[in-house]
Amino acid sequence: MPLPFDCRDGVLHVEDVPLPAIAAAVGTPTYVYSTAALRASARAFRAGLAAVPRKQLAFAVKANPNLAVLTLLAAEGYGADIVSAGEMLHALAAGMPARSLIFSGVGKTRRELAAALDAGIGQFNLELEEEGVVLAAMAAARGERAPAVLRVNPDVDAGTHAKISTGRKQNKFGVAIADAGAIYARLATLHGLDLRGIAIHIGSQLSDLGPLEAAYARIGRLVAELRAAGHAITHVDLGGGLGLAYRPEEVMPSPAAYGAMVARVTRDWDVTLLFEPGRFIAGDAGVLLTEVLWVKPGAVDPYVIVDAAMNDLARPALYDAYHDFVAVRPSGARMTANIAGPVCESGDTFAMGRDIDDVAAGDLAVFRTAGAYGATMASTYNCRALVPEVLVDGDRFALVADRITPAAMLAAQHLSPWMADEAA
Ligand code: LLP
Q1: Cystine design at 367: which of 62, 201, 264, 323 (Cβ 3.0–4.6 Å)?
Q2: Which of 56, 59, 62 most suits a substitution to test ligand 1, by most atoms within 8 Å of the C-beta?
Q3: Which residues form the Orn/DAP/Arg decarboxylase 2 N-terminal domain (predicted)?
Q4: CA 84 to ligand 1 center in whole angstroms
């Protein structure tokens, strides 16, 4: 099978679709996802865990909540890790069984907890003792027991960007590992909870398995302590976090290497393991297609001004993230340039002084590895349209999320009644 993104006859394709055809039909900027790439990464992740006997795979919806993407992953046997009632709505709409949903998140509202109980989701990941008390009372009032695990903060530095690191003791997530035993014991007495294990997630875009292994080993010791205290531990949720190579020269741990580490560390645990991969599944399956508007002289290097901006792909502005920039019709020539969008902030800059394909106004180009934390983090800042999404499957493509226009957004705004009166 050809790579899902490759150059044929000098034109970049996604599977069998030339990107200029998508630009002509849908306009730019737009996200473009490959069905084949999504399936391949979903299968590679599962295959990497072949040595883990009992497991449940839950795609982290936050990485890409597009209905078509979730529907494909549901067909691959994935459930979902959700962090809001909105994500639950998307996962259920995609046909994921309620029992396959895991509700994570440090700020679940009572309304969201009730909606998740109504839906009958598979697991609540409790982030603090009080949340467990509230959930237990709500479930008991319905004559139910909510399936739950306690999220523990193992105090491990995941070695990733500070804004996507979650497992250090100063982070807001989980209960301190030193307090976990006592909290677990108190929550285990509540009739409204079916407390069955532990969850962790130490961060995202992890390039090194070392911190993950250290965190898992700590959880293994906690599981043994909890069992010694008489608790029946049947489930451990190992979170997500496996990183992707955003730069061509980067080397990341493979799902096979990750799976081998997991199998080794958890060999004696005798539990069902849950996994919440997001980036690994969707990241490489998407590009952001954009058109070069201008090439503008700069003090040092020229500015390539593209029609995509920080509101469409926020990662460079938020995390100084690198996204490879490739021309759709590369000539072979190179240039050193800054790449920036139209938004009125200096932070709306995708790259500075980067060696890229030579491009000119009117050319199409893509930002790669944009399928995860791309469209989902888009905004309408500067009254720009909400970026659309396209799915490719072989030689077919379809719009799977509309471009929400400024006119539609304006139609959702209203003058106050008194202003309308005064205007009449
Ligand atoms: N489980 C939990 C509880 C999480 O908080 C996350 C991500 C995941 C699973 C999925 O992690 P992954 O496999 O995708 O690394 N917007 C940032 C990433 C934020 C990740 C938040 N939590 C970015 O663009 O890099």
Answers
A1: 323
A2: 62
A3: 43-282
A4: 14
383 included as an active-site residue: no
263: in domain: yes
| Boundary residue ending a domain (248, 282, 316) | 282
Residue 373 identity (one-letter amino acid): Y
For residue 211, the domain's CATH number is: 3.20.20.10
Distances (CA, A) of 171 to 106, 130, 156, 165, 168: 11, 18, 11, 8, 5
SS3 of residue 13 by DSSP: strand
- Encoded tokens for 111: 């309304």
- Specify if 420 maps to a domain: no
**What is the residue with the minimal CA distance to atom 24 of ligand 1?**
373
CA distance 287 to 302: 24
From 282, 308, 324, the end of a domain falls on: 282
Query: ipTM surpassing 0.95, yes or no?
Result: yes
Are 17 and 230 in contact by the 8 Å Cβ rule? The answer is no
Same domain, yes or no, for 70 and 217?
A: yes
Please state the domain count of the chain. Answer: 2
Q: Using CA atoms, how far apart are residues 237 and 201, in angstroms rounded to an integer?
A: 8
Average pLDDT over residues 268-275: 98
* Beta carbon of 283 within 6 Å of any ligand 1 atom: no
Strand-by-strand arrangement of the 5-8 sheet: 5-8, 11-14, 17-18
Per-residue pLDDT tens over the stretch 205-226: 999 999 999 999 999 999 999 9
Q: Is residue 393 domain-shared with residue 255, that is, in the same domain?
A: no
Q: Which atom of ligand 1 is nearest to the CA of 377?
A: 16
Q: What's the whole-model pTM score?
A: 0.97
Ligand 1 centre distance from Cα of residue 203 (Å) = 7
Q: Is 368 in the pocket of ligand 1 (CB under 6 A)?
A: no
Q: Does 163 map to a domain? A: yes
Cβ 322 under 6 angstroms from ligand 1: no
| pLDDT-derived band at 2, boundaries 50, 70, 90 | low
Q: What tens digit of pLDDT does each residue of 135-177 get?
A: 999 999 999 999 999 999 998 887 778 777 777 888 888 999 9
378 lines ligand 1 (CB under 6 A): no
Average per-residue pLDDT for the chain: 96
Select from 78, 204, 288 the residue to mutate for testing ligand 1; criterion: most ligand atoms less than 8 Å from CB.
204
Q: Which of 251, 333, 344, 411 is labelled catalytic?
A: 344
| Domain containing residue 171 | 35-282
